[in-house]
Structures are given as C-alpha cells and as structure tokens.
Amino acid sequence: MLYQAGKNCKIHVHKSSTRRYARYRTELPLIVKVLGQDGYLRIHGRCFEIAENGLGAVVTSEFRPGEMVSLELAIPKVAELQTLRAVVRHRMGFLHGFEFVGILPEQRAQIRAWCRTLPPG
Predict the structure, then answer these.
(1) Which of 8, 30, 83, 117 has the fewest C-beta atoms lying within 10 Å of its C-beta?
(2) Contact between 1 and 15 (Cβ < 8 Å)
(3) Which residues, 6 or more positions from 92, have their beta carbon under 8 angstroms from its beta carbon?
(4) For every residue of the chain, which 3-state class applies, written as one string?
(5) pLDDT for position 1
(6) At a CB cut-off of 8 Å and minimum separation 6, what does 43 contact?
(7) d(CA 21, CA 55)
(8) Domain range summary for the chain, segments of one domain joined by +
C-alpha cells in the first residue's frame, strides 16, 4: 500500500505491518479434516506459514471461506499431534488461510514458542 504523508513524502506500508500476530515461514505436512456426506474426509496439504492465530497452507481441495475444518499437524519438538479447529478465512486456488478457533492456551504457547525459532514470513 502507498500512502501520501505530505507533498514530497510517500510511505510504503505492507499489509503484514497491520496484522495482530507475526507470520513465520515453515514447511510442515498437514491434514485437513472436513465433514462430508459419508463422514470425515482427510485431505493432505502443506503448511507454508504459521502464526499464533492461524496458518497458510496449500491443500489439494478447495474450501469455501467460512467453512469450519479440523487441522492436524505435528509441531517439531512437541510430543503430541496437534488438532486445531479452524475457519477458512480466504482461498486463492489451492492456497488457503485458516484462522484457529477455540485454541487452547497450551496449544497457543507451543505454537508461539516454535514460531520464535522460525524465520519471519
């Protein structure tokens, strides 16, 4: 985004500077579970970006914004598999943005601690 701050002064502001939580680059396998007509479907994907409140992933199915899903991922150095409820916030082809819903404080703390070891997104 470009803002005019004065006659001869332009300020470039990246959208990421307005986010509530910093994003971090990663590469993790991910399973998205969604309720279908015949029970739960398990769709494989790759998490490429993570934050305390959500993640970005490439998933081989297209989910609608607003759709509720469960995400399963193994966070390095955390013993148990993490299952997180999430809502699809945006989609562009197979790229999806998921926001965590009802995340437990322990899960948020584990994600926060792991994010600190990652390069910024």
Answers:
(1) 8
(2) yes
(3) none
(4) CEEECCCCCEEECCHHHHCCCCCEEEEEEEEEEEEECCEEEEEEEEEEEEECCEEEEEECCCCCCCCEEEEEECCCCCCCCEEEEEEEEEEECCEEEEEECCCCHHHHHHHHHHHCCCCEC
(5) 38
(6) 31, 32, 33, 34, 59, 60, 61
(7) 11
(8) 20-115
- What does DSSP say about strands 39-51 and 54-59: parallel, antiparallel, or unpaired? antiparallel
Residue 59 structure tokens = 């998933």
Q: The domain at 20-115 falls in which architecture?
A: Beta Barrel (2.40)
pTM exceeding the 0.85 threshold for the entire prediction = no
End-to-end CA separation in angstroms for the chain: 18
| Tokens read off for 118 | 């990652």
pLDDT for the residue 76: 87
